Structures are given as C-alpha cells and as structure tokens.
Amino acid sequence: MTDFSRVLCAIDLTEPSRRVLDCALWWARRHGADVSVLHVHPLALPPPEAGGLTGGAPEASIAAHAPLTPDAHREHQREIERFVEQARTDGLQLEVLLDEDPSVADAIVARADALAADLVVVGAGTGPASEHPVLGRITMDLLRSAPCSVLVIPPPAGDVVNPCVAGVGRVLCAVSLSEASRPLLESASAFASQSAAHLTVVHVVELSEVAALAYDFDAHREARLQPACDELVALVEDVVGPDKPVEEIVAQGAPSSEILKLAAEESTGLIVVGLGAGHRARGTGRPAAQAVAREARCPVLFLHADAAAAISRPFASDSRQEPRAAAG
Fold it and tell me: What percentage of the chain reaches a pLDDT higher than 90?
C-alpha cells in the first residue's frame, strides 16, 4: 500500500474545515503519519502600476488582505492552534503552519513540496456559504498542480456521518484500464483490506452516439462492453488475486455520472481515482474525476501517479464474487 508518512491538512478556520481536519487526523492515525496543519492568509495583489506581482487575482470568493504585522501573525497563529486543539490530536506528531500568499492553492502546493508531503487533505468547497455540489477554485487548482496525492472532503450532507470518523465500510475504485490502473487498484485494494471494507472496481465505457447511429447499436455496444469486461476481470485477477472480495462492474455512460450513481447506491465511504497523466485515458479522465469530487457525498482520494508507482505488492484474500455489468 502507498506509504503515507506526512499528511498536510489545509484548513480555513470554518466549521466545514473541522470535518477536513478530523479526516486528516483519522488518516494519519491509520498510516502512522505526521501531520502539518496549514492555514493560508490570502494576500491582495498590488495593482500592476505599482510594479508588484502580476498574473491574476486571488481565488474567487476568498477575501484578500494586507500582509500580517508581526503581532497579527502571532495572534493568527494562536487562533489556528486553538482551532486545532479542539480536535482529538492525541498520539500524533503535529505542527501548525501559517503562510501568506495571493494564491491559496500555490501556497498549499509549495508547502507540500517543502514538506515532501505524501497526502494533502482539503475541503471541496470554498467557504461556509458553499452548498454542495461544489468544487472550489482552490481545490480545483490544487488538483491540477498537486505534487502528491489529494484527499478531497465534501461538506456535511444532512445527518450523514463523517466516514473518516465512523469508518469506511465500502471503497469504490474507478479504473481506466490503462497501465496506470494497476498501481491504483493495488493501493485501493490494500486500503480496503486494512479497513475491512468491501471493494468495488468500476470501469465506465463511453459509447459514441455518432458511431452508434451509423450501424446497429446493440452490436456497437457489445463490441465495446465485452472487451472491457474481459480486461477488467483480467486486471483484478492479476493485481488483487484470483480469490478476492472484490466486485467488478463495467458501466456505460458518462464516467462521472456513473461513478457517482454507483457510489450512492452502495453507500460508498471512499472513492479512489487516479491523479496524473496516466489516468486521462479511457474511463476516468481528469475532468471526469474532478466532477466526481465536485458532487460526491463521500471523500475522494486522488492517488498521484508517482505515489501509485511506488506501491510494491498486491493484496490477496480468500473470497470471490462474479463480475457484473451495471444496470441501465
């Protein structure tokens, strides 16, 4: 399984970010990782005529401020520490960080680089007024440039219990059937084993309406779906093993919609997708994965390609389920 030894948790001191912090601490305990909690004070960009920085405004809906004075910096640091102290942090190596930057996403990326973080934990929304489904600009920018894996935590939805606190009972891994799917599946299956969770592996086939209109649709569908089923079965058997507590599903349609529908039907506690060029191929391209994070009601783990490549061994177990095609 991927070695998460350093977790960077980005918070904005709002109530939704308490949920993010709880997930980061839960994840760190499971992996024996150290935790850095980061709050970024967003700076206003100087006007171009002042000879200052250029290149765009701070993130939309994020209030920009002047640089902190030394006294204000110390008071802000204490505020972050008080926020963190309200969480259960016992048994963890934890540090609290305060950075100032016009771009919150750039500051998170810079800290992740400097700390050699293995995982960044961040909220999906942009602030306390955000309503789901939403994927804030900060998180969107972070997913484009993150140097490591990213765990996106959705805001609370009604009375749904935070799965990162209650425990993850079901893991859904979306694969593209490219070579990059192998280490992604290894990590998802290892996590499911560690959590004693049910694992579902899904691949979504996008059928071409133009091609379907040119000849018999059923023949077109069969020509696409059957090879995908065969490839998925072979991938799971090769990576996870022939005796496995895994459900394989090949669905057809828009990848994000099918993944979200399946996650809702199965009350999934964690969705695992790829983050990196290798996962832009069939089934789970980056725009589709971001759409999943935007609307998912459970945490979404974007496993970075470099982290996935470092996985050394597959997971094996002692039961098996027959593959099936998704309904509809």
Answer: 44
Bridge-based pairing state of the strands 149-153 and 300-304: antiparallel
DSSP run (H or E) holding 264: helix 255-265
Tokens of 82: 């008080």
Q: How much is the pTM?
A: 0.82
Give the DSSP letter string of 32-72: T-EEEEEEEEEBPPPPGGGT---S-PSPTTPPPBPPPPHHH
Superfamily assignment of 168-328 in CATH? Answer: HUPs (3.40.50.620)
> Side chain identity at 205, as an amino acid letter?
V
Please state whether beta strands 94-101 and 149-153 pair in parallel, antiparallel, or not at all (unpaired). Answer: unpaired
Share of the chain residues as helix, strand and coil, in percent rounded to the nearest 5: 40, 20, 40
User: Which DSSP string do the residues of 119-134 spell out, in sequence order?
Assistant: EEEEESSSSTT--SS-
**What is the C-alpha separation between 62 and 133, in angstroms, rounded?**
18
Fold identical between 1-167 and 168-328?
A: yes
How far is the first Cα of the chain from the last one, in angstroms, to the nearest whole number? Answer: 34
Mean local confidence (pLDDT), 159-165: 65
Tokens of 194: 């560690």
Q: Which structure tokens are listed for 310?
A: 């470092």
User: To 10 degrees, what angle do helices 15-31 and 70-85 make?
Assistant: 70
Q: Which CATH number fits domain 1-167: 3.40.50.2000, 3.90.1570.10, 3.40.50.150, 3.40.50.620?
A: 3.40.50.620
pLDDT at 311 over 90: no
Domain ranges (residues) in the chain: 1-167, 168-328
- Note the pLDDT tens digit of each residue in 47-90: 554 433 333 444 544 566 789 999 999 999 999 999 999 888 88
The 10s digit of each residue's pLDDT in 180-204 is 899 999 999 988 988 889 999 999 9
Q: What distances in angstroms separate CA 170 from CA 184, 190, 206, one per listed residue?
A: 16, 13, 25
